[in-house]
């Protein structure tokens, strides 16, 4: 499709503003208790910065933004569970009607008072493990104790099974040259822990120092380990998602998830999500445009210092601060409009040009990520 003129597409976006996002990420902390060897945030030092979102800022977000979203996820650049005021954040969330997601390194799930506050709204917990052997996990996730992670996840699994609207439990593995051979063992471990699925992604090499960890040059090794992992997943009856492949979901698990949709809380959340999808479709019809990046139209990242961005992609743009404007103003403000217009007028933001959601190839070549970041604000948090 030929690019539209910037003026035309901007006028359309102003005349027919997109609906409220359905999914919001709140970066409740930048700090992390680990030093994972490939973590972009650890490499730039932000995880030791000690920056946490202040409670008054989260109270504003809880009042303005969260009542109209269906999913809330915590932190992306730090470990959410170690933030000093995380329990107070959860107390506020528990007064709202939404579903939460938590991506965690699982090292602090034993924190007193955490699970009872987390579980009432939790829909999904993703535990990043990256290995099945203590030596591998403690090498990649430097600072972690494998035994503590296992103990915490066993405790979490027992607690989630004791409530009616049982949250999903996923084990995540980033595949690299140092751990890919362990994938079949990770499937075994996840099954033993009671998890529903193992979800794998490629290591995105964001720094030239990590090139040796990339699996770009090892296709035979990948095929062998993937074959073993698929067999283990069928044998253990646990779901498995490998990059670029349809997920393997055991029949019993799929049926149970479908059944759980009928639990009252899940039903409301599913209804809200469906309404929001319908809102985007209605917007597409009215505007005559397509929602070309699901993040620009459906998601928002609210950072610890009040900045807002549409995604967590390296080099992402920042589109305004909650310290200066309301979220409603930022969501349809000139910065977001310019980003959305860039999807149609042939002038996408530099981050969008190398991102598979926008105009970039999928997967992006390594040079796309290791070349210098052009967005000056990106130096803030990596
Ligand atoms: S195209 Fe990619 S970089 Fe651009 S806003 Fe969407 S997710 Fe972010």
Total helix count?
Answer: 16
What value does the average pLDDT take?
88
Kindly report the spatial arrangement of strands forming the biggest sheet: 9-8-7-5-4-3-1-10-11-12
What is the H/E order? HEEHHEHEHEHEHEHEHEHHHEEEHHHH
User: Which residue ranges are poorly predicted, with pLDDT under 50 across at least 5 consecutive positions?
Assistant: 360-366, 368-382
Given helix and strand content, the structural type is alpha/beta
Coarse morphology: globular
Helical percent range? 25-40%
> How large a portion of the residues is in β-strands, by DSSP E?
5-15%
Q: How many strand units?
A: 12
Ligand kinds: iron/sulfur cluster
What is the C-alpha radius of gyration, as a whole number of Å?
21 Å
Q: State the end-to-end CA separation.
A: 34 Å
The description of the largest β-sheet is:
10 strands, mixed
Please tag this protein with its features.
binds iron/sulfur cluster, 16 helices, about 375 residues, disordered C terminus, alpha/beta, ten-stranded mixed beta sheet, about 40% helix, two-stranded antiparallel sheet
């Amino acid at each position: 499709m030929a690019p539209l003129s910037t003026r035309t597409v901007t006028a359309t976006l102003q005349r027919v503003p997109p609906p409220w996002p359905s999914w919001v990420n709140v970066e409740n902390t930048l700090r992390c208790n680990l030093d994972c060897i490939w973590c972009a945030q650890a490499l730039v030092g932000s995880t030791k910065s000690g920056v946490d979102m202040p409670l008054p800022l989260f109270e504003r977000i809880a009042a303005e933004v969260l009542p109209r979203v269906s999913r809330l996820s915590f932190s992306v650049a730090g470990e959410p569970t170690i933030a000093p005021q995380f329990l107070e954040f959860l107390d506020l969330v528990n007064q709202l009607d939404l579903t939460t997601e938590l991506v965690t390194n699982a090292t602090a799930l034993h924190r007193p008072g955490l699970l009872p506050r987390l579980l009432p709204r939790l829909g999904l917990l993703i535990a990043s493990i990256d290995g099945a052997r203590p030596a591998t996990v403690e090498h990649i996730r430097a600072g972690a104790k494998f035994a503590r992670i296992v103990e915490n996840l066993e405790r979490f699994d027992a607690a989630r099974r004791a409530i009616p609207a049982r949250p999903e439990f996923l084990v995540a593995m980033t595949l690299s040259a140092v751990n890919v051979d362990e994938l079949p063992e990770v499937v075994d471990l996840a099954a033993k822990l009671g998890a529903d699925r193992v979800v794998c992604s490629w290591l995105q090499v964001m720094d030239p120092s990590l090139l040796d960890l990339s699996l770009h040059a090892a296709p035979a090794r990948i095929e062998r380990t993937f074959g073993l992992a698929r067999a283990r997943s069928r044998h253990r009856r646990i779901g498995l998602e490998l990059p670029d492949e349809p997920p393997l979901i055991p029949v019993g698990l799929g049926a149970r998830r479908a059944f759980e949709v009928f639990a009252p809380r899940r039903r409301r959340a599913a209804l809200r999500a469906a309404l929001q999808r319908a809102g985007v479709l209605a917007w597409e019809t009215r505007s005559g445009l397509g929602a070309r990046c699901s993040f620009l139209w459906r998601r928002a990242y609210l950072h610890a210092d009040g900045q807002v961005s549409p995604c967590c992609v390296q080099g992402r743009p920042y589109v305004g601060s909650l310290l200066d404007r309301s979220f409603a103003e930022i969501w349809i403000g000139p910065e977001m409009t310019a980003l959305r217009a860039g999807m149609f007028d042939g002038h996408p933001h530099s981050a969008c040009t190398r991102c598979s959601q926008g105009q970039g190839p999928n997967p992006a070549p390594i040079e796309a990520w290791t070349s210098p970041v052009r967005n000056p604000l990106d130096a803030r948090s990596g």
